[in-house]
Amino acid sequence: MEHQGRVRLKDVAAAAGLSSATVSLILNGMSDRFPPATIVRVRETAEALGYTPNVAARSLRTNVTHTLGVLTDNILTTSSGYPMIQGMQDAAWERDFLMLFIGVDSDPDRRAKAIAELQARQVDGLLVGAMYHRSVDVGPLPAGLPTVGYNAVVPGVACFVPDDRGVGIQATQLLVDHGHRRIVHLTEFPTDGLARELRIQGFEKVLREAGVTEARVHRLATESRTAPSDVAERAALEILSGPEPPTAILAFTDLFAVGVYRAARQLGVRIPEDLSVVGIDNRAHVAEELRPGLTTLALPHYEIGKLAADRVLDALELGDPIPQETVLVPFTMVERDSVAPPR
Q1: Which residues pair with 102 in a beta bridge?
Q2: Which strands sit side by side in the sheet containing 98-103, from one edge to the other?
């Protein structure tokens, strides 16, 4: 069956020998009142003609666009961004929703304008997030628009964030359970991120409960023009060359761990025989390619994206308000070969 030009609803109705109203109801999922044979006839005719619904027109009728607005910083260009976006996309596709992204920097006026633009396009729900775990204040949010924060603490709404205190506990407990006492947590100087201090809290909690006094936190300054692995390498050379060097290093990220590996190689320090190393990220093409493979904790970015989108979609489906809460999403331990008991 061929048809010239865009196939309209009335074309399907004419070909099926039915009224446009009947065809519209069936194709919009309101087919309970019609015989099964009629439903099949309409759907087969629409498919044969290549009919696709006019989404804009349907949105005007129903006031529902089946679109989620996503406000980001530069998350789309980062390694952490892809799995979060994939999680949102999977949740959206499962319920026939699409996503509309707007990327903005930290300028509050631009953020407010971005939210206004998304609202003007009649998105049904809103996701607000960040590249790394931090606080994001976007100002007043649209009343009545289901909104959730992802990978960020957003005032006034439910937020899904990585359990960074928990990951500090998990990683440190692993090292303590292997018998390590001289442990260094190699981390960064304060930034506007929340992960650093939360991980330190977890690190210190385990040490305090285990009665470990030889461990310490070493903060290093990361420069925008210097690779984190290079900064970590310089710090690790100093740490490992000092008196009573650590038997284990917990790196703030896998890239910091790369620097530790380089320093250890230069000094003839064997991993894990002389030094155990734990990273955080499970960064693609890094942790598994180091030799020996790096034991690390995988950031739950996919889970954060999917859980956040599902929460908005659930609210839209059920018509219930979203309770204001902070949901801590756990990391996953990925054990490889970089941890062993101290000699």
Answers
A1: 71
A2: 98-103, 67-72, 125-135, 147-153, 158-162, 326-329
> Model-level pTM greater than 0.85?
no
Among 261, 341, 338, 262, smallest CA distance to 294 is for 338
Which one of 3.40.50.300, 1.20.120.450, 3.30.70.120, 3.40.50.2300 gives the CATH number of domain 67-162+301-329? Answer: 3.40.50.2300
Kindly report, residue by residue over 168-221, the tens digit of the pLDDT.
Answer: 999 999 999 999 999 999 998 767 778 999 999 999 999 999 999 999 999 877
**Domain ranges (residues) in the chain:** 9-53, 67-162+301-329, 164-299
CATH architecture of 164-299: 3-Layer(aba) Sandwich (3.40)
Tokens of 303: 């889970």
Report the first-to-last Cα separation within the chain, whole angstroms. 78
Strands 295-298 and 332-334: antiparallel
Hey, do 67-162+301-329 and 164-299 end up sharing a CATH topology, with the first three levels equal? yes
Distance from C-alpha of 267 to C-alpha of 53, rounded to nearest angstrom? 67
* Helix, coil or strand: residue 327: strand
- Helices and strands in the chain: count of H runs, count of E runs: 11, 12
Rounded to the nearest 10 degrees, the angle between the axes of helix 36-49 and helix 9-16 is 120
Distance CA(277)–CA(265), nearest Å, equals 13
Q: How many Cβ atoms sit within 10 Å of the Cβ of residue 245?
A: 17
127: which residues sit within 8 A by CB, 6+ positions away? 68, 69, 70, 71, 88, 147, 148, 149, 150, 308, 309, 312
- For 100-144, what is each residue's pLDDT tens digit? 988 887 777 888 888 888 888 889 999 998 888 888 888 788 888
User: Residue type for 199, please?
Assistant: R
